Amino acid sequence: MSYRHIPAMPKEVAYYLNCRPGKIFVDGTIGGCGHAGKICEKILPDGLLIGIDQDIDAITNADRVLGAYAPNIRLFHGNFIHLPDFLSQLKIAAVDGILLDLGISLHQIKNSGRGFSFREDEPLDMRMDAQSGETAENLINNLSRENLRRLFKDYGEERWAKQIAYKIVETRKRKMIRTSTQLAQIIIDAIPRHALSKQKIHPATRVFMALRIAVNQELEMLKTFMDRAADFLNPGGRLCVLSFHSLEDRIVKQKFKALEKGCSCPPQLPICVCGQNPQISILTKRVVRPSTEEIIANPMARSTRLRAAEKLQQTDDRENRSRKLETLNQQLSEP
Fold first, then answer.
1. Of 77, 124, 199, 207, which residue is least crowded by CB atoms under 10 Å?
2. What is the mean pLDDT of residues 248-259?
3. From CA 103, how far away is CA 237, in angstroms rounded?
4. Residue 106: φ, ψ to 5°
5. CATH code for the part of the protein at 10-107+218-320
6. What gap in Å lies between CA 134 and CA 130, rounded to an integer?
7. Which pTM was predicted?
């Protein structure tokens, strides 16, 4: 089975990653290999691409599609938060660029058979890694009404979260909710008729997204990775993140700002005492969005948000900070 997916913003990703011959890059969500193939072309003849994906279908596809670049590729089945382990296996301390494409692939929607789409009649699984974690069916049939409401509200920003949670709980009293189309119909039935006519997207879109995020712990994984992302980069190395909804983008934006600022001391302190230096320079001062032409050609790219940053050359300013503290203490002790 072919792995169908069209990469979002390929030109922009290539620009911000700044791929060059002989360098080492990581595609943390290799998916359909659209971005990975372009990276391979630019790092030849002796560069290395480390491809990671928690969907085994993506790894199998990458092994086939990128066969021509086999000497320059190492593939790992797992989540990108395990990058330190994968680098350790390869005896690599840091890399020159990392790409995270946080969206769901067309293959997963159309051909995975795991219930990602409300348009397909499939088991409610929604796990990216089909061998681990809790399924969407388990969550739908076991979470309390309040926890369902909070999940749909917090992760899906669903206006009718309360009504949908109530309808799910009432339905499962009579029978288990097991398929994607069954759940989609429950959602439709829960939303007031006057609101349905005004929906610009399918009524089940936000609930399905919220479930997928919860099942795969997507926000928690992203936060964990972003906390250490700069540690995996060589000086001058770049991190490029494609996100597809506001919750992901907010995590990336806030972490970039914190890493660029460095110091976390309270504003009232006259000098920095925390010792945290700026680690990155943000390359995208404003979020980058796809062009109108790309959205027409690839509607799935319409919600894409791109942010990128470059790791700074680290300097140890402990001696400078010590001198500043000594000077400040002298000034304070003077009459």
1. 199
2. 97
3. 23
4. -60, -35
5. 3.40.50.150
6. 10
7. 0.88
